[in-house]
Amino acid sequence: MCYPGRKTLAFFLVFVPLYLHGVSSQEAGPAGQRKPFSERLRRLEEQFRRFQEVTLTDLQGVVSNYNLSYSINTRFWGLAQETQAVALAVNQSLATVQNHLGHLKTWMRKTQRRSRKVDSRLLALGAALSERRAQCSRDRKEQAAQRDTLTQLALGVRALQDKMAHLVHLVQSQGARLAALKGWPQVPSPAPTVPRPTLAQRPAQPGSPSPSSLKPQGGRQAPRASPEPRHPPQDFAGHLQGIQEPPGPGSLRAQPPEGPGKTCSVGPVLVFPNASTENVVILSPGFLWGLQALSVCSWVRTASGHLGTLLSYAMQENDSELVLHGRDSLVPGSVHFVIGDPAFRELPLQPLLDGQWHHLCVIWTSILGRFWLHVDRRLVATGSHFREGYKIPPGGSLVLGQEQDSVGVGFDSSEAFVGSVAGLAIWDRALVPREVSDLATGKEVPTGPILTLANASWVGGFVQRVNCTHLVPCL
Question: Residue 139 — very low, low, confident or very high, per pLDDT cuts 50/70/90?
Fold first, then answer.
């Protein structure tokens, strides 16, 4: 490194000899003009000494300025390094904050979506409750109208019986009088067609003649006809109440099982051991065309406190186009059957929580919005006006064991299925009761399923796929 002070010193060392040489050359002039050499030398020494002092002062200033600038440069370098460290820390903090903000935005969107879903389901539930209350009111009015009709019918029958009894009494009285006057034997009057209790069956009433009141007329005992009672037979009301309408095809009465059958062979079994959000099975390719009817049947076994999500079909426009799901916040065993969210129906599946194998079939058709729920061949729930005329669109994501908040993602452990599934199949039509019974008893699989467990393209998480030759005894 080159110092400025050294350059200045070298310059003066060169300049001083040249200056002395010039002075000596000037002294070589006339003797009269020259001054004493000692005086000039003394002046020159004084000038040189002052020059040295000035030079030293300048050099000291230069050195101090250099030290100051070096210190400033060192400080600036330290400040630059500290600024870079602070900038790096600020960038890291900004990245962390942005990451947290991204997670917060995702959580807020998910919460808003779930809130909208809950609100829509509450609205649908309120509409269903209103419809049920209106239906109950209509049923009460119909029952009241039926009771009024039965009462009027009973009153009409009673009046008819009174009229017929009065006519029979008049006929018998006139016949007895004619027989007494002419001395002819009394011709027995025809028995009335209206059923009435006999004398031995009914107690004697005030105003009614007893057998001892029969008095002879004309030397012969002429029987007096006892008047008919003014009230209908005692068993008439019971007869009317005993009339029951035979159960129709929509009756919810469960048919008793025909007895144990052979052991069912249903193919592979999918075991969901826990409620992890990684436990998911994807059925591919999903629905290739729109569905206006649907049948989902499967063998299910679970020992959990709630059933969880069996099936979820999501689209970009609607993440709950078709869902069979329950969660720990619902009534134990209740499942929401969703078609085109927010419309849903709550299905009772409490019998499935006993840890045993049960056969489940959920059937829906857009014609009148009819749906049926079969458990172990028994019809346990049915209804109508559920997504009437609706069409489930194709091209979505169909998964088992999880409920999708968006296509293929957004799983919640509280909605996960824990248990085993076997023999699952989906049809694009409504199965009839005989097909459901044949499927549950292992006799025959209905033709034309569009999806089965053989279409499972992805089995993730802790889900185990077990191949069993025989699963459970058929019902």
Answer: confident
